[in-house]
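User: Fold both of these, please.

Assistant: Here is the first one.
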Amino acid sequence: MNTINRFLFKDLDIRGQHLSLIDTWQDMIQNRGYSVLVRQLFGELSALAIFLANGIKHKGKLTLQVQGSGIVSLLLVEVTSDLKIRGMVRSDSIIEEGDSLDKILGEGQIVATLYNSQTDHSFQSLVPINQKGLIATFEDYFFQSEQLESRLWVSSTQENLCAMLLQKMPEADQHDSEGWHRVGTLSDTITQDELNSLDAESLLHRLFHEETLQLFNADWVGYECEQNKERFEKIIYDLGEQDARDLLKERGEIAIHNEICNEHLFFDEQDIDRIFATNP
């Protein structure tokens, strides 16, 4: 189950999305050693990026990048328009159980970049971090950028990442002045276990069985982290041929860590010969 579903309260002009990732999420965090708090922050940013990317109308990708002065110096998630995701967290020291969000992220902001591969153009916006957390930050963002009141629920465990987004459309109050409050109150009864274990249909029925709700077909969310070998070959080229050959002689091979994919690329003598022969 690695799916995202859109749903609509037909009589209320309220829309939503439900996300449930298992294998895809495990691929995202495999061998990363993230603490519980880091994993939750990474999960929140990943869920938000997927929800936003699910509305992209063109080929491209969305990148959310949290840059701060705290223990976590970088939090990065990329999602393509066909819902392929990758990401990483970089921290400078161990995060303790009682550490505050301010200590973890420090003074910082979220950089949201939307890239259109058809026009080769990027649009970037800066989102100030709400000290109540990333969920509160993006509830603010949706309201300020789209004028839509929004509510988010996210649970990130070692096994899965599950989330739900609700958004109040502009004419919701005209349909039912109490509808948004009612739906929000019902949603607040979600338990972590329900969010983690129930599929979209079961969860929505459990919460909203008295409402008229339409659940749309699911889309698949996959993990994909392609190695851009040319970029790493340029790193070796920029070392200079003599330094590269000295390093190769010292170590027997040159290893470069691809941090976002959490994989190493290895270059031997034949690779070095080729790199400097094709880049005179």
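And the second sequence with its predicted structure:
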Amino acid sequence: MTLKTLIAASLLAFNLAHAAEPLPMSVAVQGNPLGASPACGTGAADPASAAPDTLVRALYEIVSGPAGGRKDWDRMTTLFAPGAIVTPTTHRGEQFLAVPQSQSQFAALNDRLLGQRGFYEREVAQQIASFGHVAHVWSTYETRDRPDGPVRVRGVNAVQLLNDGKRWCILSITWDAELPAHPIPAALDRPGR
């Protein structure tokens, strides 16, 4: 029996044995093959982590700011699950590039690419689909060089969230920018556009 098969069988047995009873928030490691640590981490919860919509909007606050301004990357860490992935993307001619990375790698990339110019990103539409402890947010955005400047880029963030019983946190985020070849669909765009 492979390790993968053993883990799957253990999870199935665990779920069947406990299907009728609610699980306590802190389960002993030997009784829970997934471990006992809260999925969203053990640090203090940011108030934005109370709901998916506020959690996603907090990201826009963090990445936005004036040229040379310091971004609150420590706050961003509290909004993500340990091991969460950020996948920056870009279009270069006919190529679409995506590079999954850690939050700290993303912060360094963001500082390098956007640190010396103003960057303001705001949400213009949001759709949330949730089930139990998981949610997916489609968050349509616009970016500008200054808060009242012209729109530079529009696109859609795809955000996967988890609620560990105490708070929501981000498992992964990626995005794609709008191009003439693939405009933002009406279902994800802001009303009245």
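DSSP finds four helices and seven strands in the chain.
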